[in-house]
Amino acid sequence: MNIKLNAGREKSLLRRHPWIFASAIKQADSDLASGATVDLLSSDGQFLARASYSPISQIRARVWTFNDEPVDKEFFRRRIKSAIELRQMSKVDSHTNAYRLLHGESDGMPGFVVDRYKDLLVLQSTTAGSDFWKEIVADVLVEETGIQNIYERSDVDVRELEGLKPIAGILRGTIDDTSTGLSTSLRLTIDEYNLKFQVDIEHGHKTGFYLDQRHNRHRVGEFAEGRDVLNCFCYTGGFSIHALANGAKSVLSVDSSADALSLLEENITLNNLPAERHTCLEGDVFQLLRKFRDANRSFDMIILDPPKFAPTAAHAEKASRAYKDINLLAFKLLRHGGMLFTYSCSGGIDAALFQKIVASAALDAGVDATIIEHLSQGSDHPVSLHFPEGAYLKGLVCMKG
Ligand code: SAH
């Protein structure tokens, strides 16, 4: 099965970027099935890479390998073994029992995300190619990790771009098995830097928890002592719990999701933290920040960890305005010497642009601020040098002068 590229369109593959867009294709064999493995050939017929075929998506093919090797169960075993070794090397499990085991393109496995929550794996498949190999990959995951239970959370919108329906449910094992520590509502408790978090595998965002922010939550904890903290877009309280556990004077947690806030309150109890120092507020951050400004409220530390405003560069302009808006308000609400932990997980906004947005927010707020740290996703979310899109999480720690 072959796909021949237009002249000149082999360039990105020669740089080892794993995506081929529809416009790059000169000619494809007519009987290609969704997710099938195809050889990508240059316009003069040279082998370039072996890839999965997505008949509907604008990203028409995603590379499995640049070598002339079979793509089969043993191929995926090699990829998964390397991914496991990388996590062992980076010692992510010295801080947690919940981490990303497979991070798509950056682990040579486009379309696959696999997160480990103790003795349970949560798999997300987002492309025709990953759906095609899902069962084989699930078998290899069980064989190589020794973990028997896999839950699938392939219920994400991006699947629509591939013409795939949302799927969620048990993929391997018996999830009510007591060995996973799961209750019937598919909840489990994980550890992160000696703190405990309830994770709702079935209904939680992503695969249940924002594993990518682990290190950044720890950093917040290290600066939180004695501070009045405002945690915006708090979800189940990751940053709030770290702040409270490390001596924050008060923490105000804001989110629009009542379910997330109720898990947050459980997390406070679970960690025996002083509930009297914490307040939950359900609402819209954009409105509440304005309300706080009008009421002359102020804080010593503000965390802004909003959802993805710009999934792609096409949304960058509108997203830039939203980032600027909340960062500007946050700078106003900060006391002198206050700290802003501000993040963007938007693929469409790169680190340089994000820094410019935050700088222009400070300027318009009329404050001087200094970046004391650049933050990113944890080492269990590696970034292939050939796939810069993998570096999606940007964070700045700013000190207000
Ligand atoms: N910081 C969290 C993850 C935040 S995810 C952690 O470390 O776990 C983003 C959160 O923003 C989600 O919980 C979502 O419910 C919430 N959210 C999205 N739009 C919002 C809005 N306009 N106002 C308040 N919360 C919002």
Structural overview:
28% of the residues lie in helices and 30% in strands. With 401 residues, the protein is α/β, with parallel strands linked by helices. It has 3 domains: 2-65, Roll (Archaeosine Trna-guanine Transglycosylase, Chain: A, domain 4); 73-185, Transcription Regulator spoIIAA; 210-400, 3-Layer(aba) Sandwich (Rossmann fold), CATH 3.40.50.150. The longest helix is centred in the middle third of the chain and has 18 residues, at 128-145. It binds S-adenosyl-L-homocysteine. S-adenosyl-L-homocysteine binds at residues 210, 213, 217, 233-236, 238-239, 254-257, 260, 284-286, 305, 307.
Descriptors for this entry?
401 residues, alpha/beta, Archaeosine Trna-guanine Transglycosylase, Chain: A, domain 4, Transcription Regulator spoIIAA, Rossmann fold, 3 domains, 7-stranded mixed sheet, 6-stranded mixed sheet, 9 helices, 20 strands, 30% strand, globular, binds S-adenosyl-L-homocysteine
**Share of residues in helices:** 25-40%
Output the helix-strand order.
Answer: EHEEEEEHEEEHEEEEHEHEHEHEHEHEE
- SS strand fraction: 25-35%
| Small molecules bound | S-adenosyl-L-homocysteine
Task: Name the structural class.
Answer: alpha/beta
Largest sheet: 7 strands, mixed
Based on CA inertia axes, which overall geometry fits? globular
Number of helices: 9
CATH topology group of the largest domain: Rossmann fold
Summarize the structure.
With 401 residues, the protein is α/β, with parallel strands linked by helices.
